[in-house]
Amino acid sequence: MLRSALLLLAASSSLFAQGRNVPGQFDYYVLSLSWSPEHCAGPQGSRDRFQCGGERKFGFIVHGLWPQFERGWPESCGTGPGPDRATIDEMMPIMPSPGLMRHEWQKHGTCSGLTPKQYFNRIRDTYRAIKVPPDYQQPPRQITVKPTDIEAKFVAANPGMTPQSIGIVCTGNGRFLQEVRICLDKNMKPRPCSADVRDCRSPQVIMQPVK
Asked: Which residues touch 47 (CB under 8 Å, ≥6 apart)?
């Protein structure tokens, strides 16, 4: 009896997940902007020749554009070819990792209801429309700042954005800034984030310098 109940529960969970992983069916987007100096300061950065080993020094780059539900999110909504070589080359200035692009398409882009070209064009256009505050574009020295101050400066630089439409992500120990996540409706306008987009709880975070 117990085994039958467990099998039924597993089958129900699988059907529920399939029903949520349907291309184009989601509530809003999260644009995740990664603070590149933090990635490059860690062990993964030493092996990342695209993002950390070249002459160009990156500040905020795109981690991904994620379809979201008000609770939870869809993922891996389909199979098929990902971005072509031309699309990857076009995106490298703002998303400098071919492997990351392919991963983001498979896990998140397939849930957007868009083609790979449309999805990455949307990422590029949205990134260009968001203004990074001047203090955070190319800081040559380490900055210690409150997460609420990061939110306030993004709000000041971007009309229509509110603190409720921004999530600040810090590293596991809470010391360093990792990402800024911006919640957008399907027209790519700022909207409040749901509870799944959580803020860093540290009173202050360190922004590694661009160097």
From this structure: none
10 Å CB burial of residue 162 (0-12, 13-18, 19+) is middle
What residues have CB less than 8 Å from 116, skipping those under 6 apart? 81, 82, 83, 84, 87, 105, 109
Name the H helices within the chain: 2-20, 36-41, 85-91, 98-107, 116-129, 147-157
Q: Is the pLDDT of residue 5 over 60?
A: no
* pLDDT value, residue 53: 77
Domains of the chain: 26-207 (3.90.730.10)
Burial of 112 (0-12, 13-18, 19+ CB in 10 A): buried
Query: What global pTM score does this model have?
Result: 0.88
Mark whether 108 is an active-site residue. yes
Which entry of 38, 39, 55, 63 is annotated as an active-site residue?
Answer: 63
Q: What does the buried/exposed string (b/e) look like for 64-90 if buried means 16 or more CB atoms within 10 Å of the residue's CB?
A: bbbbbeeeebbeebeeeebbeeebbeb
Residue 63 annotated among the catalytic residues of the structure = yes
